[in-house]
Design brief:
- This protein is an alpha/beta fold.
- It contains two helices and seven strands.
- It has a single domain (2-103), classed as ANL, C-terminal domain (GMP Synthetase, Chain A, domain 3, 2-Layer Sandwich).
- The strands form two sheets. A four-stranded mixed sheet has the order 6-5-4-7, covered by helices on one side. The chain has a three-stranded antiparallel sheet with strand order 1-2-3.
- It has helices at 23-28, 62-76; strands at 2-5, 8-14, 20-22, 37-46, 49-56, 81-86, 101-103.
- The longest helix has 15 residues, at 62-76.
């Protein structure tokens, strides 16, 4: 979901309790992950479920998966369901921009 404030687009996802998690906090989730993650995209279609699309140039191990899932649950709530989907690429939008987050949940 993109909200416009004073002409600027603000991207965010929701925690499982409905709190807004901004783009910076979402980007920080990946801060301690290995450099093998080339691109990522967080897609929220339900308040308690996020799909993380990952493009990797190396292996994405079960340990890395657990660390990332725990980081997400810490930010979004322990009742979050998270699925990881390894993909070959994450396409750019029509505007040519790459979106880190896609929010399809309407709470407001």
């Amino acid at each position: 979901m993109v909200k416009s404030i004073e002409g600027r687009a603000i991207d965010f996802l929701y925690s499982t309790k409905g709190a807004k998690i901004n783009l910076g906090n979402i980007a920080n989730i990946l801060k301690y992950m290995p450099n093998s993650i080339v691109k990522s995209q967080f897609v929220q279609d339900e308040i308690d479920h996020i799909v993380v699309r990952l493009v990797c140039d190396g292996e994405f191990t079960e340990d890395q998966r657990k660390v990332l899932a725990n980081e997400m649950k810490h930010k979004f709530g322990n009742d979050l369901r998270v699925d990881f989907k390894l993909v070959d690429d994450i396409p750019r939008e029509k505007s040519g921009k790459y979106k880190l987050i896609v929010n399809n949940v309407m709470l407001e």
